[in-house]
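Side project, low priority. Logging it here so it doesn't get lost.
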Amino acid sequence: MNHPLYIYNSLTRRKEHFKPLHEPRVGMYVCGPTVYGDAHLGHARPAITFDILYRYLQHLGYKVRYVRNITDVGHLEHDADEGEDKIAKKARLENLEPMEVVQYYLNRYHKAMEALNVLPPSIEPHASGHIIEQIEYVKAILDAGYAYESEGSVYFDVPKYNRDFHYGKLSGRNIAELLNTTRELDGQAEKRNPADFALWKKAAPEHIMHWPSPWSEGFPGWHLECSTMSEKYLGEVFDIHGGGMDLQFPHHECEIAQSVAHSGHDAVCYWMHNNMITINGQKMGKSLGNFITLDEFFTGTHKALVQAYSPMTIRFFILQAHYRGTVDFSNEALQAAEKAYERIMDGWKRLNELKPAEASTVDVKGLAQKCEEAMNDDLNTPIVIAHLFDACRAINSVNDGKATISQADLDELKATFKTFLFDVLGIVDERAGGSGVNLKPYEEAVNLLLDIRRDAKHKKDWATSDLIRNRLAEIGFDVKDTKDGFEWKVK
């Protein structure tokens, strides 16, 4: 299999021809959420970005093992190594078991991902379910000489590692500068160097989640879970590791150091990172308190929203920008995405209603190739969408009687829309029951009313004709008369 797919490798900082280690199998690991609150728009972007990659690799014929972890222990409130565990804090404040918190928000996360038509991963491991493997991983790093025990905790020795390898190669950090500027934190006197990071932390008496280990009753460091679980499910070397750009440092930098110290070599062939969603130029996230949850978008209940936005509007909004570019939230941008989504769905609806002619007077050939070329160029979804909009203009031209299309071109156009709009981009026609609701009876009822209106017009019964049109307009339908009858959509 020799597909010309090029993806940007964050480690080498260039686009590279994707060649999996073991054709036709691909191993892909993506950092998933820490489940202590509802998913917000910032969570949607990596989920959708790597859903697109997952879908496209499968389209190319690869068998993909997609692993997306769930952080349910070890992610601390103030710093990677200090403060209260985020999930334990939520459990304490709400008088719940930590795993109650995890399950509640994980269920809600899955529901939001399903609404966004994000495919589930092949494996979704939890950090708390791999404590034994993480302890063994720490032992190996200690044996290799790149970690040390201090007062019951185990820390990674960053300066020693950097002398033998290169700490900072993913994020481009200068280790000398890093060591000089790393801030001192309360309780970090047990570290040899402020840049060192925890592999295992001794639990304070009030810490809810803790496990026995050779060093103390404690819990694993945040960075450790991904190195451990990716190796367990994908091997010591695997193809793709993804996540948000905010994870490059320290999380992914620490992962690289752990993996090299553990195994003596890099674990990942291609590092991929999506850029941030911002609001007023700032990253949207829980830590800044400027986030809007996906449920708030779907219901329109947040004070910053002027209306509700459907899951497909959100997905289309994210796909209209390249995954490595920033996206700034605004109601205007979301409303534009909503209109664009509706236009492309109108195009698909009209495409299925077109009648073929003997020959085409519109040029729609090569559309599939153009879409594939855009996807092969580092998943350039905005260009794919632009090509599909070009096709919509041709569809509208045929629909308005200004052009014709042959049966062969019509079939090719339908196949291309199905492949790239629905299968690869993962767009769902919400008006046609994509939400899981059977809308066929609803569509048939509207069509029946418009058939009655057409008969009334034919009989010059203008009162009935106008009544039906006006009442449909009042309840939110936009009706357009065409040369072959009518077409309608929800405003």
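Brief comment: Residues 440-490 form one domain.
Revisit when time allows.
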